[in-house]
Fold this sequence. Notes:
Shape: elongated
Number of domains: 2
Strand order of the largest sheet: 2-3-4-1-5
CATH architecture of the largest domain: 3-Layer(aba) Sandwich
Number of strands: 5
Structural class: alpha/beta
Order of helices and strands: HHHHHEHEHHEHEHHE
Bound molecules: adenosine-5'-triphosphate, magnesium ion
Largest sheet: 5 strands, parallel
Number of helices: 11
CATH class of the largest domain: Alpha Beta
Distance between the termini: 60 Å
Radius of gyration: 23 Å
CATH superfamily of the largest domain: P-loop containing nucleotide triphosphate hydrolases
Amino acid sequence: MNTDNLVERLKLLGWSYTADQLDGLLEDSSKNNVSYSEFLYTLLSNEIEYKEQLELEKRIKKARLPYVKTIHDFDFPFQPSLDPKRVNEVLTGRYIHNGENIILLGPPGVGKTHLAISMALEALTQGHTALFITANDFISECRKAHKEGLIQRIIKRYCRPDLLIMDEIGYFAFDEVSAHTLFQIISKRYEQGAMILTSNKSYVEWGKIFGDDVLATAMLDRIVHHSTTFNIKGGSYR
Length: 238
Ligand SMILES: Nc1ncnc2c1ncn2[C@@H]1O[C@H](COP(=O)(O)OP(=O)(O)OP(=O)(O)O)[C@@H](O)[C@H]1O
Ligand SMILES: [Mg+2]
C-alpha cells in the first residue's frame, strides 16, 4: 500500500518521527507477524520517546550549562572527602520538590562545577527546568539591567526555573545592586525553588563577598535553613 496518505495525516498531527519511520515499522511488523495492538504500542511509544527527547534537549539548551558532564564522568575515589551516597541522594531530585538547596564548597579544581552540572542534568532529565549562571555573569547582568531600569526582569528570570544554579560565588565581589538583587531572588525562592550554589569561600567569608555582613547573614540564613552542604577538600583535579 502507498503510505503517502498516512504520512500526510501523521504530519498534520505533528507526528514527524512516526511519519519518517512508518515504512520501516510497517515492513517489520508484517514480516514478524506483529499484532495490531503491539504495532500501535510500538508506534506510540517511539513517538512519545522522540517528543520527550526533544523537550529534554530544549530544557538543556535553556538551562545554559557551560558544558555537559555527567556524574558517570566523576571519579569518586579521587575525591574521598565526598560521600557518593550523599551525592546519589541529591541525584534523586527530592530536594527540588522540597525547594531545598545544595551548597558545594571547596578550593579550585575539586569538582564543584562538574558536580553542579551533573546534578542539574539529572534534574533536567527528570523533567525540571533549570538555569545556570556564574556569579560574575550575574553581577554583569545586574549592572546592565540596573542602568536600563530592568532589575525586576532579572528577579523574574532567576525566580522562574525549578532549579537555579549559581557557580563561583566568592571569586568576585558583588556590588550593592547585584547583592540586593540576589537577596531578593533568594528570599523569593526560599522554601519554593531549589538552588545549587558553589563557592570557594567558607560561610564566614560571605560578608566580604557581598560587602555587607547583615545582608550576607540574612542571605545565608535562608539558604542554609533547608540545605545539604558538601565541603570538598583536597587538591585540584586540573
Ligand atoms: N573527581 C573528579 N573526577 C573527574 N573529573 C574531575 C573530578 N574533579 C574535577 N574534575 C574535572 O576537573 C576540572 C576542574 O573541575 P571543576 O571545574 O568542577 O572544579 P571547581 O571546583 O569548579 O573549580 P573552580 O573553583 O576553579 O571553579 C573539570 O574538567 C572537571 O570535570
Ligand atoms: Mg568551577
